[in-house]
Amino acid sequence: MDFRAIRKKHVNDKSIILIVDDEIVSRYTVEMLLNTEGYHLIFAEGGTEALQKAETFIPDLMLLDVMMPGMDGFEVCRRLRANPRLAELPIVMVTALDDRESRLHGIEMGADDFMTKPFDRAELRARVRSITRLNRYRRLIETEEQLVYLANYDTLTGLPNRNLLVERLRQTLDRASRNQQGVAVLSLDLDSFQIINDSIGHECGDKLLCEMAQRLTTSVAAGATVARFSGDEFAVMHESNDPVKEVSIMAQRLLSIISNPVILNGHETVVTASIGVSIYPNDGDEALQLLKNANTAMSRAKERGKNSYQFFTAEMNTFALKRLILENQLRKVLSQDELRLYYQPQIELESGRIVGVEALLRWQHPEYGLLFPSHFISVAEDMGLIIPIGEWVLRTACHQNQQWLEMGFPLLCMSVNVSSRQFKNPDLLQTVKQALIDSQLDPNLLELELTESVLMADSGNHQGAAMLAELQAMGVKIAIDDFGTGYSSLSYLKRFPVNTLKIDKAFVEDITMESEHESAITIAIIAMAHSLNLSVIAEGVENTEQWQFLEKHHCKIAQGFLFSHPLSSEEISKLLADMPNAGYFTPLNLSKNKKR
Q1: Which of 138, 151, 545, 583 could be stapled to 354 by a disulfide with Cβ–Cβ 3.0 to 4.6 Å?
Q2: pLDDT digits (tens, 9 = 90+) for 381-421
Q3: C-alpha span between 14 and 40 (Å, rounded)
């Protein structure tokens, strides 16, 4: 409800009087008696119409006739009092029967006063003037109270908002200065909250925010203030003689409590948070400065992997400035054509033939040169830019693969990584279809890579599995990237349509020909994949011993620096054209390709 509009209506406009009477003569009489008083008069001929107009106009006074056909005045009065929006509406019941029983019954139904017909002109005007004046004053007071509430509290969670927290923080700092106490300010942001809004809706997102507000309120130290700033951002203020020690304990407790599962839309969901902490007087002596520094520390916690807390340091301001500059530059990467794709060959170990490539994103920064994804992808995720960037990667990779086919090179499978936010995007299926149509690439030559964590986050949602099944039915292959580093659960391999497992390089590094014990996980992954009729690709192969081991245990395909670093499209084209038999790797040419 717009309380400012209500206040304007009742302060600047005329008082609204709803006159309810089935007799036209009675209605006309009241109109003649009141038309010079400056009121806005509305008329209803029966009970049903009266209820509708009362709901629409919310009048300042209702003159309600008792005796009407159908719904009489007593029933109208009863229904009005049962309506929360109209329960306080002043009602004067009008009757030609000046009997005690009618008055008592009217009072029981909720009438405020009675008048009898025919009206005394002076009495009618005096009563209407008195009631409307009192009602306008009451509404003005209520509206002012509502405006004060809206100015200081969050309407969704009921927590103090930023305005009230800043005021309380200023008062607390004044007191802390006099008493030589410390004050801690915590900035808390839910990790990946936007994905919840995008995937299961804003209603579930609001439910989650209310649940987190309740958890925070019941978990902070006595005397601490919890506030909601905006979106999924909360703040906590805590006054203490030893704020560093107490806040360290509090932050750990909050992270643990927040990560407890919550049921959303019938599914168990786990949410984590990032927390930043600033301390008075070390990190500032003004409210806004402390809040800013706590927010900076929170951003650093997100940068370092989320689900953690960070204390503010002066160096973080420099870091925050660099991030702000990076964000501004990232907004222009697509329009200024600064993104690049590099491709790492995937080799069939038995033959040494190139059978595929993995598309890897780079940013040709105008100032810093070629940047790897670790420098900017997390920022793009936070900004929501990963969706358009991901679409660009997919379209570019498909067009490039089709171009190689048209150049006469052998069939290659193009692997493209899909981020968590892309996977949650309901438009992903259509985006893939359109990229294949525009490029005219055979769907069998496209493979989408998702991490275990992305699939597990969607394990309770059948939409993701259904979308993957439809992609697979089109011919698109589905691969699990970095397999073995996350859940490695047979159950989700059965739930999701999967074609390929990519063994994480951490397991490939442990491979030795002398001790297969050190390579047990790799052997197990290969055997499991074969039992499920899945392909296997080993990542991070860097020496011939690893190559020989993987081939011995029937891993068919591998990629890594042993064969080639990621190459530009021009370099891949040259490699395919120059190498013997259109792209075969042999021990003799490995060292040359490794240097590329």
Answers
A1: 583
A2: 878 889 999 999 999 999 999 999 999 998 999 999 998 88
A3: 6
Between CA 520 and CA 19 the distance in angstroms is 87
Segment holding 481, helix H or strand E? strand 477-483
In this structure, which amino acid lies at residue 500? Answer: T
Continuous H helices in 331-385: 377-383
Side-chain half-sphere of 333: how many Cα atoms within 13 Å? 29
Q: Provide Rg for the chain, Cα atoms.
A: 35
Q: Is 19:31 a contact under the CB 8 Å cutoff?
A: yes
Q: Can you tell me the distance from the alpha carbon of 290 to that of 312, in angstroms, rounded to the nearest whole number?
A: 9
CA atoms within 13 A on the CB side of 195: 21
pTM tops 0.70: no
Question: Mean pLDDT over all residues of the chain?
Answer: 84
In sign, the C-alpha dihedral spanning 495, 498, 502, 507 is positive
Banded model confidence at residue 580, pLDDT cuts 50, 70, 90: low
Place of tokens 């009206």: 119
In angstroms, the CA 106 to CA 119 distance is 19
CA atoms of 116 and 577, how far apart (whole Å) = 104
CA distance 91 to 101: 18
Which domains, ranges and CATH numbers included, belong to the chain?
3-151 (3.40.50.2300), 162-327 (3.30.70.270), 336-594 (3.20.20.450)
